[in-house]
Amino acid sequence: MSEDKTSQLISMFKNLIKDHGLPQGVADIRDPDFQALAEAHIDEFHEARDECESDRTLF
What we know:
single chain; 59 residues; mainly alpha; globular
């Protein structure tokens, strides 16, 4: 996957996490579309989740 596509996915996941809350894992996501997307792009989801978690601990 191209770097631009990866960055777009991570940004999209960060927005979804902000909208739906910070899940501990994919199984904790209640929205079925969000969960399916996270399962399909698990590495990008985990990176976005880690970035959101880091942002939370800074404030």
